[in-house]
Design brief:
With 213 residues, the protein is mainly α. It contains eight helices and no strands. Helix content is 71%, strand content 0%.
Length: 213
């Protein structure tokens, strides 16, 4: 019995002592950091999506004939809701890109909705609209922070997982680089919509053009 136990204990001891050198523990810690930062991104995007129906209903009460903009927002929100934003999504570059595109469309649609609201002084004076707009602006700021944190965390993870010797360990245990936020107009998408009540555009005038995300 002793002859069998000692080799097994020796093997366990060797494996345990080699774990720090092969980067296994650090890989697990960095993987958890990516998952946590991704969860915060989803949390803030969900917060924004929850605001959309009430915001659309308030705008509709004052500007029901702005059907095109209202429809764009509703469709963009439905597109976002149709994506299963699970933790596994960050391991699929194609699914991750679709998620980015859907969120970008919603960002653009909301920006156009807020610009349209400048044509309706009564809407801008509505307490519910002002409250929802303030919540939306705050949420957009939180999204920017969460996205930036995710970008930094994934960059750190991807750099580590590609380096030796941990790259060998990562290959053995099936850990791969994660997709990251990367779009041509990253700065524009990460900029929260501006909500201003200082000046009013007279009804009937065209709202200023909005850059497409």
């Amino acid at each position: 019995m002793t002859r069998r136990v000692l080799p097994a204990l020796l093997l366990i001891s060797v494996l345990a002592s080699s774990l720090p050198g092969c980067g296994y523990n650090n890989l697990q810690a960095k993987d958890e950091a990516v998952n946590a930062s991704w969860s915060e991104v989803l949390n803030q995007y969900q917060r924004r999506a929850d605001l959309v129906p009430n915001l659309v209903n308030v705008v509709k009460g004052y500007a029901s004939h702005e059907q095109q903009v209202l429809t764009e927002v509703t469709r963009a929100r439905a597109s976002v809701a149709g994506i299963q934003a699970t933790p596994e999504l960050v391991n699929d570059p194609v699914a991750f890109q679709k998620f980015q595109q859907a969120q970008s469309q919603l960002t653009g649609a909301l920006s156009r909705l807020l610009v349209v609201s400048e044509n309706y002084p009564n809407l801008k004076a509505d307490a519910s609209f002002r409250d929802l707009s303030a919540q939306l602006e705050g949420t957009e700021n939180r999204i920017t922070v969460a996205r930036n944190r995710y970008i930094t965390t994934v960059q750190d993870y991807n750099t580590y997982v590609r380096q030796l010797p941990q790259s060998l360990t990562a290959k053995v245990i099936g850990m791969q680089p994660r997709p990251n936020f990367s779009v041509n107009n990253e700065a524009a998408i990460a900029t929260a919509p501006t909500v201003s009540f200082d000046t009013a555009t007279p009804a009937g005038q065209s709202a200023p053009p909005v850059a497409q995300p």
